[in-house]
Amino acid sequence: MYVCIMHHDGEIMLHRNMQAAPEPFLQAIAPYREGLVVAVECLFTWYWLADLCAGQGIPFVLGHALDMKAIHGGKAKHDNIDSHTMAALLRGGLLPQAYVYPAAMRATRDLLRRRTHLLRTRAALLAHVHNTNSQYNLPEIGKKIAYKAKRAGVAERFAEAAVHKTIEVDLALITYYDELLKDLELSLLKTAKHHDANTLYLLQTVPGIGKILSLVLLYEIHRIDRFPSVQAFASYARLVKCSKESGGKRLGTSGKKSATRTSSGPFPKRPLYSCVTTLRARNFWPAWRKNMIKAKP
User: Fold this and answer.
1) Considering only CA atoms, which of 258, 271, 270, 257 is closest in space to residue 213?
2) pLDDT tens digit string along 69-101?
3) Three-state SS string across 86-154, please?
4) pTM, entire model
5) How far apart are CA 82 and CA 28, in angstroms?
6) Which of 86, 63, 90 is nearest to 74 (CA)?
7) Eight-state DSSP code of residue 32
8) How far is CA 193 from CA 88, 93, 215, 220, in A?
9) Is residue 223 a contact partner of residue 233, using CB atoms and an 8 Å limit?
């Protein structure tokens, strides 16, 4: 990894590549520990460095990778340049920051995100069964094979041996994923009750929020007070559009991806579920729809 240590007056104290390990890092920064703030780009490898800094009492800042336009917009881009640019942004107070998620709940959050990957793989298998049925121009299956009890006789619809085997494999994998996801969700719920049982319970009292969605909200948001305002939270949830203006003229919107992708999906869907269950939400729905959905010409 490339390390760049910059003095508050802009002087480069250290700028070199080194092994990504605790001991070499601590040895390199040892002469500059007083007043040192460590900043790192929010990639998938920041956990160990954040934990190391927490254990050593070193202030740690996580840079938002997507928002660091000064890096992505450069003519040349490599680790040498990026490390210097991040140090300069941090020195000037312009480094866009991401949330440093606490280590105690981080692994469970990652496990919950892994569940999404497994669920999508299962959905792809279900889609393949239906697509194969259409490919051979067979009548509609006519039942929801997402349920185990409805899968009997599906593979037998295909006369060709190879296709029959393909569907058998798909159905066997779907059944395996059903058991895997069931066990995973049970484990997540048990862990969540240990981390924050009260918040988990309160989330499930909201109409339209069940066990899985409450887990997503709990682990993706973590602490609601980390958002300075309601507007900041709405932006995090991708519920607002950021306008682009110049000279008094609106040039469109931007920043659609400047939020946590995993948490952004549930929020726009909540009004739909709430409208089904509560009268108050049904009365609110027309005004919300008018403001949020652009009318088609």
Assistant:
1) 270
2) 767 677 778 889 999 999 999 999 999 999 999
3) HHHHHHCCCCCEECCCCHHHHHHHHHHHHHHHHHHHHHHHHHHHHHHHHHCCCCCCCCCCCCHHHCCCC
4) 0.82
5) 19
6) 86
7) G
8) 42, 38, 10, 15
9) no
